[in-house]
Amino acid sequence: MKRYLTLGLVGVAVIAQAEMDGSKILMEEAERAKEVQRLEYQAELLKQRAEIARYVEEIQKYGGDVSDLGVQLPPSSHATTTPGAAKNTSAKQKDHLPKVLHIENNRAAFETEEGKVFGKVGQTLPGGYRVVAISMRDGVRLQKNGMRYDIDIAW
User: Fold this and answer.
1) How far apart are CA 31 and CA 40, in angstroms?
2) How far apart are CA 53 and CA 41, in angstroms?
3) Most buried residue, 13, 124, 146, 150, by most Cβ within 10 Å?
4) How far is CA 36 from CA 28, 29, 43, 49, 141, in A?
5) What is the 3-state secondary structure (H, E, C) of the chain?
């Protein structure tokens, strides 16, 4: 009797272990499926961005204005600098941070090195600052070279 009980417990343990292994495998496969889905989505986004960049370059080539499209050109179309030069210019860029003059609906007026300009979310201002968010309560958030700048209205 004791022998059958021991064999029964071992059998239950083996079955439980197999079920745990099976559920672990299913969870791993679900994670892999999510990762594949995420990568496919990113690949599609990259294709769309490349197509948009081609159209933007074509528009610019024929003299069109793309400032209101809210797109940035790919890095290949911008002049590259050495890392040392980038460090030297970062101090200068902080000195020339655009000032927010006022906010109207979904756009804001900025004072930049090139004078007064209006910008909407997604647009790039003179100096390379991209408008990330505009809010009457929080002001304006700009982004440049991976850095974010929160700016209140200048009084």
Assistant:
1) 14
2) 18
3) 124
4) 12, 10, 10, 20, 33
5) CHHHHHHHHHHHHHHHHHHHHHHHHHHHHHHHHHHHHHHHHHHHHHHHHHHHHHHHHHHHHCCCCCHHHCCCCCHHHCCCCCHHHHHHHHHHHHHCCCEEEEEECCEEEEEECCEEEEEECCCECCCCCEEEEEECCCEEEEEECCEEEEECECC
State the amino acid at position 93 in one-letter form: Q
Indicate the domain borders of the chain: 1-74, 84-151
60-114, pLDDT tens digit by residue? 888 777 776 665 554 444 433 444 444 444 444 455 889 999 998 889 999 988 8
Contact present, 97 and 129 (Cβ < 8 Å): yes
Percent of the chain with pLDDT over 70: 70
Can you give the pLDDT at residue 85? 45
Rounded to whole angstroms, the Cα distance separating 83 from 78 reads 15
| Whole-prediction pTM | 0.40
